[in-house]
């Protein structure tokens, strides 16, 4: 491969902070990953991360959130960046049985092969990676 040629492709989408934009984010992800073995998992992850940005950060309402989708032969990486405004970073929680919130990022961490959170109170990026050559339902060693 030539040193300036890459087989990875990257897409980006910025969405207003309205609830109906979550379905737009899902549709966008589904269209890009059409035919990929991780398309359904990626769609679910983008839906959860986008909804979290709208519900739990300044991205909701008059704000916005940004999606990035990077696809290579072995990895699909999905990132959602919010506008911050909260004092706590996104994290996997163990909510009580009757809790209304707190399960989404845990679900994402079970589906994805790796989840990374970057940022500060002014904005967080949650990236979920799906390895396309992994066995279904299993995480690579």
UniProtKB/TrEMBL annotation:
Endpoints of the signal sequence: none
InterPro entries: Anti-sigma-factor_SerPK (IPR050267), HATPase_C_sf (IPR036890), HATPase_dom (IPR003594)
Pfam families: HATPase_c_2
Start and end residues of each Histidine kinase/HSP90-like ATPase domain: 19-128
MF terms in GO: protein serine/threonine kinase activity
Superkingdom in the source lineage: Bacteria
Coiled coil residues, start to end: none
Cross-referenced SUPFAM superfamilies: ATPase domain of HSP90 chaperone/DNA topoisomerase II/histidine kinase
UniProt keyword annotations, A-Z: Kinase, Serine/threonine-protein kinase, Transferase
Protein name: Histidine kinase/HSP90-like ATPase domain-containing protein
Organism per entry: Streptomyces cahuitamycinicus
